[in-house]
Structures are given as structure tokens and as C-alpha cells.
Amino acid sequence: xxxxxRGHRVTAVPGSQHVRVEIAxxxxxxxxxxxxxxxxxxxxxxxxxxxxxxxTLFEPTDTHTTCPFKGIASYWTYRxxxxxxxxxxxxxxxxxxxxxxxxxxGHLSFYDTVADVTVEGPEPEAPQx
Length: 129
What we know:
By secondary structure, this protein is mainly β. The protein has one domain (about 5-120): Domain of unknown function (DUF427) (Metal Binding Protein, Guanine Nucleotide Exchange Factor, Chain A). The chain has no helices and eleven strands. Strands 1-2-5-6 form a four-stranded antiparallel β-sheet, with no helix packed on it. The termini are close together. The model has no long low-confidence stretch (mean pLDDT about 90).
């Protein structure tokens, strides 16, 4: 279900794309069951089930941000192999997302400016009203 406040729209729908995430050359996530999020003014984001992410490579941080359309996000840092590969707050998740994007609950998404996110499969189309 879309959320549209003052022309802003956000949707979360199950996807079938193969999403692979690497940081510093190491595969940290591999999923064929993403939740695809379309949001006005932002690139498509893929939220991955925690079972498809190697959580042993990450540690939670005290960082939290609030999105009026998705809720409160929590962040994790990639620990890597030490300080040289450490990436602060590279992944986030919404533990209690707003109703319009309930499908992303507990799923993780990565900053593609820090992580290499490769997507194979059909180009996701934004849902229509």
C-alpha cells in the first residue's frame, strides 16, 4: 500500500531479483528474496532478509534516524578485517516500520555508495495506484 503525503510516495513489494552485496571484496549478503522499496526522489532500495546477510561481519551502532514515511532506522557498522576495511553505518533496518512499508520489518539495506550492490533480474517497476 503506498503512503502519499504531499505528493511523496513509498511502496515496499516482494521482489525476485538476485541481490549480492560486497564490501572490500568480501560477499556480505546474497539474496533472491528482497523487498523492493520505491520512494519519491530516491533510488530503488533492496531490503534483504537477515538470514541472507552475514551478520557476524557487522556490529550495531548507536546511530538512529527517523523517516516520516518508514519510521526509525537502526544502523550497523561493517567490522571487516580491522580498521582499514571498517565501514561506519553502512547498513540499516527498520525494526518497527510504519504500516505502509511493513514488509521491510527487520530487513537490511546497504548504502550503495559504500557497498557494491549487484542486482540481477527484472528491473523493478514502481507500483501504480
